[in-house]
Model the fold of this input.
Amino acid sequence: MTPVRTPTDLPYATLLGFTRYVARTGPTKATFVGGLRRQRASGGGFNPHGQLVKALKADIQFGTAGRHLVEVVDQVKPRWRPLYSALSQGARRYLDSLGDLADVSLMPTHEALAMVDSLPVKISPHFGLRRADGQREAVRLHFDEDPPTREATLATLHLMASHMEQILPNAEPVLVDLRRGEAHRAGKSAGTPEVGRWLAGEAAAFAAMWRAAA
Done:
């Protein structure tokens, strides 16, 4: 009798999960993939950053130079205030780096589903930007306490760039390290075939570990 397969049996990753995976080494990779699989099976997972993202977008949209980012720290539950305080400070530095907010406007972005080798990876930018000169950016935010690793940055920018026609046509991918207010952009190596081959190998290993965790 053929065993019944459930959606959990099929390897799958979000961009966040996959980039956190490629940043790991050795046995920690298998442990991490197993944890993602269990989380998917349980339907668990909670995003504590939603209100912070809304505040940042409001400050960009209305040109309020960080007012919403300051106010949101007191609006969240007490348990989240230390996190929001740290993120708000970095987010305000990022706002300053955008220059005159009158010359910046928000743009909608779309999710994309990348097939990396045989692994589906869901790419979800946080927002798009349009500059006064017409330049577009698709922005993904990094919230972790540690800065993004070189591997995670390269994977994020490569996958976003490879699917930009779906995400925000003619835009540049940007990864913003929100705690430090630093924007990372694609270098010359981000879109090379070598990066694509590296990610395909990582995706194949991820899928194998996912199945082994059943």
